[in-house]
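Task: complex structure prediction.
Instruction: return structure tokens for all chains below.
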Amino acid sequence: MKIVVDAMGGDNAPDLIVKGCILARDEYNVGVILSGKEQEIKKILESNTTNYKNIDILNADEIITNEDKPVLALRRKKNSSLVKALNAVKNNDADAIVSAGSTGALLSGGLLVIGRIEGIERPALAPLIPSMKGGFSMLIDSGANVDCKSNFLYDFAIMADIYMKKVMNISSPRIALANIGAEKGKGNKLTIETYELLEKSVLPINFCGNIEAREILRGEADIIVCDGFVGNMILKTLEGTVKEIMSGLKEELTSSFVSKVGGALIKPSLRNFKNKFDYSEHGGAPLLGVKAPVIKAHGSSDEIAIKNAIRQAKVFCDSRVNNLIEESIMRR
Amino acid sequence: MKIVVDAMGGDNAPDLIVKGCILARDEYNVGVILSGKEQEIKKILESNTTNYKNIDILNADEIITNEDKPVLALRRKKNSSLVKALNAVKNNDADAIVSAGSTGALLSGGLLVIGRIEGIERPALAPLIPSMKGGFSMLIDSGANVDCKSNFLYDFAIMADIYMKKVMNISSPRIALANIGAEKGKGNKLTIETYELLEKSVLPINFCGNIEAREILRGEADIIVCDGFVGNMILKTLEGTVKEIMSGLKEELTSSFVSKVGGALIKPSLRNFKNKFDYSEHGGAPLLGVKAPVIKAHGSSDEIAIKNAIRQAKVFCDSRVNNLIEESIMRR
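Output:
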């Protein structure tokens, strides 16, 4: 199996991306193709390993940045690390792709270069949100589709169900619909219609009804279904709140001598606590519904996050998630 | 001026509601009508004050709870504290209403009993979200309208603009549109259309473009405009995250002897920090767009929160917000 990694994407590219690839190659015995500036990548490889087995370089001189318009960039920057990586998957030179670069470009590339699974109208981005009790909930869609119909949301649930079963080993994932109230009949037109579809599904899914946004962190659902606009709002509100609280707390803890002493004593506890929100442990967000595994790693990914995203891509391939999605969609 | 308060609504009703009314009467020299079970209210009054000036009781034997279906309850529970309070406003026996009870029933009551301001299609609920830098941002709509058109959102912005100017004394409120990206052109159909309306407004508003959910707590906008479904998701995600982090932190801080000592030392800092998220200081969420001031106090309101909600209702009346809304809507 070969996994192509966009070596130039992300805040820590290419250094920590390349290091993460070396770690993954060593730990999971997987072939890695590094897409990006050959000379730069070689230098990093040389100073971190003497073993080049299972590591290939796909030279690409251009870089797609977060400032580029996704679709335009895909068309104009044919020599970018991302486009070359996407083409490697398309041409079966690689089985899956991992990138910590522009989310928009990766989503568009997944759709336009790799292509949709037959029967899936809209692929969806599905990050895993940490729960306070441990474990994760999948939030699908978190931004790939901003205007959705109820049948899109139904397909999101089906795809996430298979992923959580096969990749995360949850035997009967609890599926909930993000909504403004718990009772059936609550919500906007989209969620009311989606509720009906999920409730009457012919596929054997474990639909548990609506979930309010207040409950999301509590881990009471394994899969949270919503349209991409709403998913983006949930995800970004959550991330922003955690970030602001943590930095506000830090400020408060250095405001007096006593609180500084107290702060020093609770440092290990605080670190434990912060780790609960650590995204790097489980890899990245899969784009579900395209023909090959596409993993969006967090922009701030370090080598451990990249290593884990590669592991995730490998399990995604090994577990035949996409074949199962194809089969389920035909029966729905 | 007389403000009617639903004495039976909220987690701490009627005890702390009545106490809050006494505080407000004493501090703001405002007339208060307590709607609810007369005997119960009298008892609480008697054990808390000897001065009954400016306090009236409107006897009501029924209570609308959070479990009641709002519209049905309004129709069937004519003798409820809420319906009687709403009617007092409708009949000009009171100038404004405050309730910490069922949000749905208060919203429906505002709309159906008190009625819309001419020209306003959809009244909106607009809580104030604390910013980490101090101050507040108004989130409008946070749940009154789950399916919105762009002209509704435009009116939300106009109403909030007047409120923030007149009640919160912000001279030129920065208005932002909640969206999945900062650039113009980002978003779903609704936000793209709303952006155009806000940008081309004939009324002199300070529209600052899109705001991502990640930035909301940072206080970079005074008014955040969105549809009620999205607003509910933002508000509830924020509340849930704060709550889960605080209780998770508490657990972590009692996990070892050292962290317990540290936790004791930082207790005052932690309290300071928690106060930043305290809703009670600024009262409640106004329902903007109805003919008389309607203030939804938080369900968990204590006497201070109720006192502040009454002050807010008073300023709302004094500052002629509704007349200004009416005038602006005619010119938009």
